[in-house]
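Recall that a protein's primary structure is simply its ordered list of amino acids. Everything else, from secondary elements to tertiary packing, is in principle encoded there. The following example makes that idea concrete.
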Amino acid sequence: MKPLILHGHHTGPNPYKVNLVLEYLKLPYDYKLWVLGDGPKGVKSAEFLKINENGRVPALEDPNTGVVSWESQAVINYLLRVYDKSHTLSPGPDASEQDRVDYDKWTAFLTTTFGPMMGQRNWYVNYNATDNPDAKKRYEEQCLRCFDVLEGQLAKSDGKSVLPGGFSAVDCHFWPWLRQYDYAQLDVSKYTFFQKWFKEIGERPEVKKIDEFLAKEKEKQGIKSM
């Protein structure tokens, strides 16, 4: 089997999701790192826009099938359809319709609500050119509301996984975004099930392997860690 090619960058949660799925499925892959902007090796460069017209990472090239995918949810869905034949990370053939809906709805909750709220909070706390207290307050409230929702869900598994049936690709979607809570200056100390979930996933060898690789690349480039 030829290695898949994952296109990502040194920071940001969405490529990390795909990293996790590739590691858990034990698929061979090369990780091609890009930088922001339209300069050489930039995600807005002509070279990268041939891979993803939207100029964003992640993108995935699969030389075994000729398929090119982008947008993290589409990339992960592709990997699960094609390579997760044992349903390691996805609902199996005996899953109930409720199980399948739960998988879809919690993934959608992250990609359409929780993730964007975290992204906006990070922007106004760390990057906006002028201080905007109203925006920071709004996105703090929205992020903590999402943490409230997630805490109730994690209670169903005693903090082991987002879905009660065990670790799945849904956890892969959530982990890279929620690990930024400190960078976003969010106090999540009251969320005991989240803290348990966060600690357990952070100790997994797949996570440590990715973190070690990205830390080395950031050090080479002098990039600030989140």
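The chain has a mean pLDDT of 95. Strands lie at 4-8, 29-33, 59-62, 67-70.
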